[in-house]
Design goal:
about 130 residues, hypothetical protein PF0899 fold, alpha+beta, single chain, three-stranded antiparallel beta sheet, three-stranded mixed beta sheet, about 30% strand, 2 domains
Length: about 130
């Protein structure tokens, strides 16, 4: 279950960033999850909530943005999104929707990033910034 290790990495990344910015509270976090990662956003959300207990993240709103798979076909030069429905979770094989070729470059959909973090700082820190 790689969702647990990814949720742990997200929580640690957000806490580290919040602490570097003298946060007293994390209010909101946006995470981008590419479809090609095969991560389940609902499971990530559940695990993040559990791992956030007793931390500066407790009660923060987490937004999960799913990033679709985009490709560039080396055979026909098609560039665009792939319909992910029906692709096997364990062995994703992607064909070009235009020519059915498999010589593809994946240009989006593999990422898992903390996109932004909204924090609250102490009054004196916020005024000094």
């Amino acid at each position: 279950m790689h969702e647990l290790s990814m949720a742990d990495a997200i929580v640690k990344t957000v806490i580290e960033s919040a602490e570097k910015n003298d946060a007293i509270e994390v209010q909101e976090v946006t995470v981008e999850i590419g479809q090609m990662t095969m991560l389940n956003p609902e499971q990530i959300m559940f695990m993040v909530e559990i791992l956030s207990e007793d931390t500066i993240l407790k009660g923060a709103k987490f937004n999960m943005e799913e990033i679709p798979i985009e490709i560039k076909c080396e055979s026909c030069n098609f560039e665009g999104k792939i319909d992910f429905e029906g692709i096997d979770h364990y062995a994703p094989i992607i064909n070009c929707p235009a020519c059915e070729g498999r010589e593809l470059s994946i240009t989006a959909g593999r990422e898992c990033n903390v996109k932004n973090i909204k924090i609250e700082q102490r009054e004196e820190d916020a005024q000094d910034s």
